[in-house]
């Protein structure tokens, strides 16, 4: 069993290490045969060259990614949170059928509604804007299921006591439900970060201007494109820098994933 775990660990971590070490090689070492795993001389200036020598607006791509992520998480927590809270603790007509409807959307392949989503956004004039990401983020059925499952575990007596004290439903949501939901909200932060950081297909459809590309789309179009003139060691340096934030983000907040997903399945 330990040997199997070790083998899985090596196969998972090898691509990250290979990308990092390839970013530090010379051109000759990169194309050497047989290939060398470790570089003989570590060329750290490849990372500086990635930012300065090829007129790549990596800073703009990074800024766009951060804006998209912040908007996605804000819309997810506010709109999906309110919907999940209503389905858990308010008297919503046909509540079970509404919940079943949202659950059924998880069975639909995402590729089937890419074109309708694009046509809707195009008709609203929202292509080449951050709204093309923020509006779909407000209708994520998976996040709704996670939040509703967690809200179901909040004792109704707490909310009833707040209502007796004169708190409105919105205040009960903001003052009671949200503070008690730190684990699941932390889980949404991580899942949304991973999705936003790695997504390149949808941005390639709704964004046509270079200065609006998020990081993954910018790298795909200007770094990994076959006609790119950027040396391979510099390309791998850019890829290594793109890998670092999600890895650090996950290592820092990984406890929220296990805790949030496990607690969301426990009914109080």
TrEMBL record:
Q: Where is the ABC transmembrane type-1 domain?
A: 62-253
Q: Which family does it belong to?
A: Belongs to the binding-protein-dependent transport system permease family.
Bilayer disposition of the protein: Multi-pass membrane protein
The processes (GO biological process) annotated in the record are: transmembrane transport
Q: Is Membrane one of the keywords?
A: yes
Taxonomic superkingdom: Bacteria
Q: Which SUPFAM superfamilies match?
A: MetI-like (SSF161098)
Where it mainly occurs, coarsely classed, is: membrane
Under the heading PANTHER family, the entry gives:
ABC TRANSPORTER PERMEASE PROTEIN MG189-RELATED, ABC TRANSPORTER PERMEASE PROTEIN MG189-RELATED-RELATED
Subcellular location per UniProt equals: Cell membrane
Matches recorded under InterPro entries: MetI-like (IPR000515), MetI-like_sf (IPR035906)
What is this protein identified as? ABC transporter permease
For this protein, the record's Pfam families field holds: BPD_transp_1
Q: Which residues cross the membrane?
A: 66-87, 99-119, 131-151, 172-193, 232-253
Where does this protein come from, organism-wise?
Paenibacillus athensensis
GO CC, any one term: plasma membrane
Sorted alphabetically, the keyword list is: Cell membrane, Membrane, Transmembrane, Transmembrane helix, Transport
